[in-house]
Amino acid sequence: MRIKLSYTVEDEQVLKEAANLIGLTGEHLQKALTLFSSTQSALKGEEGGDDPPNIEKIRDLIEEFRQALLVVDTRLAEVVDIIEGYEMYRISQRTGEGAPDSFAPETLPSTELSEG
Length: 116
Prior knowledge:
mainly alpha, disordered C terminus, two-stranded antiparallel ribbon, 2 strands
């Protein structure tokens, strides 16, 4: 089950925090690259000598590869949401319209758990 977390940081820390969140995907990205190479090798029959490729193993490699990419893609989508929201906040500050309600400090919980 996926759990959505929410927390607050100072406005000048938003982009640095977004960078930190992207950094959390490094292990999954490395795993995806390894699986990319392994899948290609398995499909080319480079791992089994003269034996035919193991189709079940190849399916498992591809599924594992897809899951690793999904983790990276999900995190990147979350970071895009964060930086787009931050840009809206910055624009509202420049135009003097005030922050949207979702950015008003008194309305942000320090943590929030929900299924997502």
